[in-house]
Design a protein that fits this description.
The chain is an alpha/beta fold. It is 44% helix and 12% strand. Helix 24 packs antiparallel against helix 25.
Length: 893
């Protein structure tokens, strides 16, 4: 029986933890658990069989730690094949216990009995899953691992698993949405076997890189996952609300796989606090709330899974008409068909950035799509796309976001450039500085695919049309990568003259889209705005089209500025047309959010229709745009206007906060660092140095204030990891310019140092560079652990704050750490561990340092640690994230 078919009408029980059970079986501390796939398969066979016999329908192979960054292709293949063979052997050997002989029948949602044919045991269905874990590296642009290299890694593993006959894949414990996408794409490009995906969320309900459960539900549904949810990091009580947040954003079955609580140290042993009965009670509570797939992660055992099965078996009725999935059951069933739904639950049309979700809703707030990143009529955008320096474009995006754009349109369609390469790079750089969703705009299918492939989220795709050749090109891309499509209401016969004919094209597009699993929720229909000067009736036809679309429950979008092309006082006419369209039910509009006239119309509409509580937004707008229509604060509004308005162009003003005519000042440098625009930060630093700005002043008044600001935002949860990392990289670019200038100065002087310059401002600046005097810190991931994402982030921040960091890397023995501490006189040591199996190595390292180097202070950190655990093993500090490590360093030195 296929797992897709089974989970349509059954609650699915997964397995539990493996690492802690292997430790109990004698796995030496620091030894990768997957090594036993080859050297001690009987231990794994026993664990897998115990889970099957406890009631698990799905058991994972012991391949969580296998990847091509850690092993050669030959080694990885041997480990994967051995692991899967062991699970299959356990499946075939497992027997049905008397207690669970009726598990298959009780798990039926509809209460009917079913044929058990195809089950290896002749009883309840048992499935073999290939377990896929994170590589331990952060992907570019935030880390060093290229996206395509990550995809290749996961595709390689998937091919081996398919050849070994697995039933499904389980992607687990991913803390980065980008790596999760790489894993799912890598599998999907090899096979259409079912894929379950769970991510590891922090206590704040977000991934390490900032994605929310809502974002992940939309992203993974669009990419073709079969079930989504969360695992690891948290206990059942803390994890259930996180999984529950997904229910309004996907019709897929949800997965709940918590730890057995948070780890504690008792009598020198790492233990998890929940007993089997308590864990099972919490799991049953999740099932009653509508969760369809349940299991356990760190600290869970076959006995816990057995208790889950027993408690579920004693439930009189698991589901009621009021359960979470009543409305979505049809969509859930459809998701297992040949053409799975690509959208979320009925009525939900949403797109995402890497951290935020934006939804289109009837009767809700119409949305603004910023239109200014487009080379048409915008010289600075053309120049940026041609020369490859995107700093100007990044500033436009940041300004559009600040001015209220809900989404930002990105168009790189310029003759003479490699549009696929340019657009994909531009999308990556934009996502590194802005957190609003992007509208990826291209008429080139190759460019569209290149951008969608690297886009971290669910994009708005601009565009498709009623032309068959265009649908044939765009629909497969939207199916593969996910996204909401803008559909132009034109076809092979060009643009219809009547509203009714345009809506017929919308119906044609939706009918064709059904072949790919699309529904009306996957489209925004562009009613088409024509130049009023060329056709005085065109505006009325467009407005009638918007009305008809709204009456049929279809979303609409317009490019407002096309209307006034060639006419005077364009903004007056455009703003009047915008109000008319909004009154007809327009869902979204392309416009310049910094335009006083357009924003005035938009804010007035919200105020008049009760969509602006307390008129707060209207009052804010009135402060920014006082009488006369000029914006009270500096804005990108004065930059890059359309060619039709070029006669009214004003000279580009300096960046906000600048006091120089050139736009170069310490505040502009600070802004570039805060926004993470590395090229701009480097350019400004060079200019300020040429203007004889002191290097210490550059650091203390330009760079460090920005780092402090973004650091506070990160601690307060208003800034997410991607922005923190980009700001750190921008600071690195500025520091590199300072270091280069200092090297040139020393070379010119003929000596590295001299009596005359000792203690000067320039030397003070070097304390933030290679010869930091703020303090020496050692970082290491403990023995047996190959994950260093968190450690690398900490390293970058500490270096930017002026600390001298010795990074020993990953899988580092206690003896080597001690040796380095003594040799270099280290005062502060940061130890990281992500895996439960490496907690003993953490404890051993702390104990050795306390005995042999008692003057060194120790920070313990990692996803599997708690503050209480860190204290019990003797660490001086516990750091929950990178910024807390910086604060600890500031308290030590």
């Amino acid at each position: 029986m296929d797992i897709r078919e089974f989970m349509k009408t059954n609650t699915v029980i997964l397995d539990g933890g493996t690492g802690s059970l292997l430790q109990a079986a004698g796995l030496p501390a620091g030894t990768p658990s997957e090594a036993w796939n080859l050297t001690n398969p009987d231990a794994l066979l026993s664990i897998h069989r115990a889970y099957y016999e406890a009631g698990s329908h799905v058991v994972n192979s012991n391949t969580f730690g296998v990847n091509l960054l850690k092993y050669s292709e030959k080694e990885a293949e041997a480990l994967v094949r051995a692991a899967i063979k062991t699970v299959k052997k356990a499946r075939d050997a497992a027997s049905d216990s008397d207690v669970h002989s009726d598990i298959y029948s009780w798990s039926r949602i509809d209460g009917r009995s079913d044929d058990r044919s195809g089950c290896p045991s002749g009883g309840r269905p048992r499935f073999v899953s290939m377990d896929i874990g994170p590589t331990g590296k952060l992907l570019k642009p935030y880390g060093e691992l290229p996206f395509e290299e990550a995809v290749r890694n996961f595709s390689f593993l998937a091919r081996i698993a398919v050849s070994e006959g697995v039933d499904l894949f389980s992607i687990e414990t991913m803390s980065d949405s980008r790596e999760t996408k790489a894993a799912l794409l890598g599998i999907r490009e090899v096979t259409d076997l079912p894929v379950f995906v769970t991510n590891a969320y922090g206590e704040d309900g977000k991934l390490l890189t900032g994605a929310t459960p809502e974002v992940m539900a939309l992203l993974l549904t669009g990419l073709g996952a079969d079930a989504v949810g969360a695992n690891c990091s948290l206990g059942p009580e803390q994890l259930l609300p996180i999984v529950g947040r997904m229910k309004d954003f996907t019709a897929l079955p949800l997965i709940f796989k918590p730890n057995a609580g948070l780890p504690e140290l008792r009598n020198g042993q790492t233990v998890y606090p929940l007993c089997a009965d308590d864990f099972a009670a919490e799991t049953v509570r999740a099932v009653r709330a509508g969760i369809r797939i349940v299991g356990g992660c760190c600290g869970t055992t076959p006995e816990m899974i057995r208790k889950v099965a027993e408690k579920l078996n004693n439930e009189d009725r698991l589901y009621s008409e009021e359960d979470l999935y009543t409305e979505a059951k049809t969509a859930v069933s459809d998701s297992a068909s040949a053409t799975p739904k690509t959208h979320a639950v009925s009525g939900c049309t949403s797109v995402t950035s890497q951290t935020h979700t934006v939804s289109f809703a009837f009767g809700g707030r119409p949305l603004i799509i910023g239109e200014r990143i487009n080379p048409t009529g915008r010289r600075s955008v053309k120049n940026a796309l041609t020369n490859g320096d995107f700093s100007e474009i990044l500033e436009i995006a940041l300004q559009e976001q600040a001015d209220g754009a809900n989404l930002i349109d990105v168009n790189a369609g310029l003759p003479g450039i490699n549009e696929p390469a340019v657009l994909s790079r531009l999308v990556e750089e934009l996502q590194s500085v802005t957190n609003v969703p992007l509208c990826i705009d291209s008429a080139d299918p190759k460019a569209l695919e290149a951008a969608l492939r690297v886009y971290n989220g669910k994009a708005l795709i601009n565009s498709v049309s009623g032309r068959q050749d265009v649908m044939d090109e765009v629909f497969p891309l939207a199916k593969k990568y996910g996204g909401v499509m803008i559909a132009l209401l034109l076809d092979e016969n060009e643009i219809p003259e009547s509203a009714e004919e345009r809506v017929k094209i919308a119906e044609k597009i939706m009918k064709e889209g059904e072949k790919y699993g699309f529904s009306k929720e996957d489209f925004l229909f562009d009613a088409l705005v024509m130049a009023l000067g060329a056709d005085p009736q065109s505006a009325e036809v467009t407005l009638d089209t918007v009305s008809l679309l709204s009456s049929r429950g279809l979303h609409s979008v317009l490019g407002i500025s096309n209307l006034s092309y060639g006419l005077p006082n364009r903004r007056v006419l455009d703003s009047a047309f915008l109000m008319a369209a909004l009154e007809r039910g327009l869902t979204a509009a392309f416009l310049n959010p910094a335009s006083a006239e357009m924003r005035g119309t938009y804010q007035s509409f919200l105020a008049l229709h009760g969509k602006d509580d307390g008129f707060n937004e209207y009052l804010r707008f009135s402060e920014l745009f006082p009488a006369g229509g000029r914006k009270a604060t500096d804005s990108a509004q004065s930059r890059d206007r359309s060619a039709a308005d070029s006669a009214q162009k004003r000279e580009k003003p300096p960046i906000s906060g600048s006091s120089c005519d050139t736009g170069v000042s310490l505040s502009s440098l600070s802004e570039a660092v805060f926004n993470g625009i590395s090229a701009r930060a480097g350019e400004l630093t060079r200019t300020l140095l040429k203007n004889n700005t002191g290097t210490l002043i550059l650091i203390q008044d330009g760079i460090l204030p920005a780092l402090e600001k973004v650091g506070r935002g990160y601690e307060e949860k208003t800034v997410y990891l991607p922005k923190l990392l980009q700001s750190a990289r921008a600071a690195e670019a500025a520091f590199a310019e300072i270091s280069g200038a200092e090297a040139a100065r020393r070379e010119k002087a003929g000596a590295l140092r001299s009596e005359e310059t000792a203690g000067s401002e320039s030397d003070a600046a070097s304390s933030y560079g290679e010869s930091s005097s703020k303090g020496k810190i050692l970082l290491a991931t403990v023995k047996g652990d190959i994950h260093d994402i968190g450690k690398n982030i900490v390293k970058m921040l500490l270096q930017n704050y002026g600390y001298d960091v010795t990074d020993l890397g990953k899988d580092v023995s206690p003896a080597r750490i001690l040796e380095t501490v003594k040799a270099e006189g280290i005062r502060l040591v940061g130890l990281s561990a992500l895996m439960t199996t490496t907690l003993p190595a953490m404890e051993e390292t702390v104990a050795l340092l306390k005995k042999e180097a008692p003057s060194a202070k120790i920070i313990a950190s990692g996803a599997v640690l708690t503050k209480e655990y860190a204290v019990k093993i003797g660490a001086d500090f516990y750091a929950k994230d990178a910024m807390e490590t910086v604060r600890i360093a500031e308290s030590v030195f």
